Amino acid sequence: MSLIDAHRTIDAIWRMESAKLIATLTGMMRDVDIAEDLAHDALVIALERWPEIGIPDNPGAWLMTTAKRRAIDLIRRRKLRDQKYEEIAHGIDLYKMNDADPTLEGEIGDDLLRLIFMTCHPVLSQESRVALTLRLLCGLTTDEISRSFLTSKSTIAQRIVRAKRTLRSKNVPFEVPTGKALKDRLSAVLEVIYLLFNEGYSATSGKDWIRPLLCQEGLRLGRILAEIVPYEAEVHGLVSLMEFQASRLKTRVSATGEPIVLLEQNRGNWDRLLIRRGQAALNRSQKLENTLGPYTLQAAISACHAEALTAAQTDWIRIAALYEALSRVTPSPIVELNRAVAVSMAFGPSYALQIVDKLSEESSLKGYHLLPSVRGDLLVKLGRFDEARTEFKLAASMSRNDREKEFLLKRAKECEP
Amino acid sequence: MRFMIIVKATTDSEEGIMPSEELYTAMQRYHEELAKAGVLLDRSGLQPSSSGIRISYSEPGGKPKVIDGPFTEAKELIAGYTLIEVKSKEEAIEWAHRYPDPHGFGQGEIELRPLYEVEDLKINPELLIKDTDLDKWVREQKKT
In the prediction, which pLDDT does A106 show? Predict the structure, then answer.
């Protein structure tokens, strides 16, 4: 194996193992920063040694043992320096460490879950949670994260350093919350995952309409979470929603790079496997809970589209009803706007326009480009082209995505007499 | 990127002999690991080729011939597949490496094959644009 090949293989193994390493080490050291350093030390040792000795049979266990040994060294040194650190090493049996300890499997899952709860902790700002999660749980480099969010490397690096400092200064525990706290904290985790996925799915700024890396990471994290907390309905709801949306990922853009709206996509190219996975996750969620949560409701809406063989066969009445339910669970002007679209399809544009006009008074939607965009669409259907053109132009001036801007201006142009 | 880990058939699998309990457990554990890493998309085992048929187009433009199974060359047959989604070819190779010896008596063979992604199909971008145009035309025809 050449050196380059070896390094690429080690890269791949790092990506597969880093979250587990960091999670286990955080459990030992109670500090994510130290844990990440130790995991990196193990990686550096692997980079030095593996090209010589070959890739070990169980590379994950090799890395884990190496990192744990470094952790124990560190604890011992500290112990000598200061007896107070003794408690840190509490519970670790220094003589019982094997290369591959299969009994640890379950515990690693638990540690992973604790780590997710830590990186998505409410003491951190939303953007810090996202950056830290991508770094520690997805194994992305600062460079990859900054490219995904179109910010500089130093901004992301600083964000991560600050986040770790906050976790330490606020003494955020490494634990899985219980009782009512679990639901709240879990919803914070789901929020981060969905934010990640969505940022990839409909890039809010920049030249591209889709950034696949973020979609993949969001989906992967969701799938992992569904395995380690299988009893939570909303986790499956979110996974279902992401599977359905991902099934249309590649039909959302034309060969020339412009966005294609849902109803005009080629359904033959929707990914049937992901649709099936979405349906399975939706079923699982509905089995666990009778009252559907917000993600499950959105997944159910997405399922209506996935199940319609042609756009004309879409069950808009059901979709409108699901949006109504959603706006009861999580009242928001954006849900209301979506309901308006469904109502327009189910009962006609004039009913929908009433909903949208009510929303125009909503201050939180000021500057939200989809409001004039939807209004323009309804006006076109009512044959009021002049007004529609003004709305599309307004929407274009509000959008920060270049591709979308172009698309909206094209629609404005189509309304010219 | 998606990869298919293909498990080749053996004389045993072709005779419909089920894997040993030990092997079965190892397979379960492996797939659980894939699922927990968020990379497993799909998996299935195939029945022996005796329950299958072949359709062969031996003459260009001629009628196809239907042949009933079983087919003889076990190594060229498929006994099952596991579909994974990973970030790199190296990661796929690493996962394939961890697949347990699928039969355990010296005939085990697995194959790793990348799937085509839409990006790979842009061999002829003009054709794709034509496709999009055609879709549009069909839709407009339906409207009128």
Answer: 53
Q: Which chain A residues are Cβ-neighbours of B122 within 8 angstroms?
A: 255
A353 interfacial to chain B (CB closer than 8 Å): no
Of residues A269, A281, A208, A200, the one with CA closest to residue A244:
A281
Please tell me the distance from the alpha carbon of residue A394 to that of residue A172, in angstroms, as a whole number. 45
The answer, yes or no, to whether residue A149 has pLDDT greater than 50, is: yes
B14, B78 Cβ separation under 8 angstroms: no
CA of B132: which chain A residue's CA is closest? A254
The tens digit of pLDDT for each residue in A294-313 reads: 999 999 999 999 999 899 99
- What whole-number distance in Å separates Cα of residue A402 and Cα of residue A414? 19
DSSP state letters, A223-278: HHHHHHSTT-HHHHHHHHHHHHHHHTGGGSB-TTS-B--GGGS-GGGS-HHHHHHH
Q: Among all residues of chain B, which has the CA nearest to that of A58? A: B98
| Run of H or E including B44 | strand B40-45
Which contiguous run of DSSP H or E holds residue A158? helix A153-169
- Model-level pTM? 0.83
CB contact under 8 A, A266 and B135: yes
- Predicted-assembly ipTM surpassing the 0.85 threshold: no
- Is there a contact between B91 and A16 if contact means CB atoms under 8 Å apart? yes
Contact A16 B94 (CB under 8 A): yes
Under 8 Å CB pairs connecting chains A and B tally to 62
pLDDT value at residue B137: 65
For A18, which residue in chain B has the nearest alpha carbon? B37
Q: Is B94 close to A220, i.e. CB distance below 8 A?
A: no
Contact B67, B56 (CB under 8 A): yes
A219 close contact with B: CB closer than 8 A:
yes
User: B102 φ, ψ to 5°?
Assistant: -70, -15
How far is the alpha carbon of A360 from chain B, nearest alpha carbon, in Å? 31
A396-401 long-range Cβ contacts below 8 angstroms, 24+ apart: A396/A369, A398/A367, A398/A368, A398/A369, A398/A372, A399/A369, A400/A204, A400/A205, A401/A202, A401/A203, A401/A204, A401/A205, A401/A206, A401/A209
- Calculate how close chain B gets to A224, using CA atoms only, in Å: 5
Higher pLDDT, A3 or B63: B63
Give the mean pLDDT of chain B.
85
Interval A403-409 mean pLDDT: 89
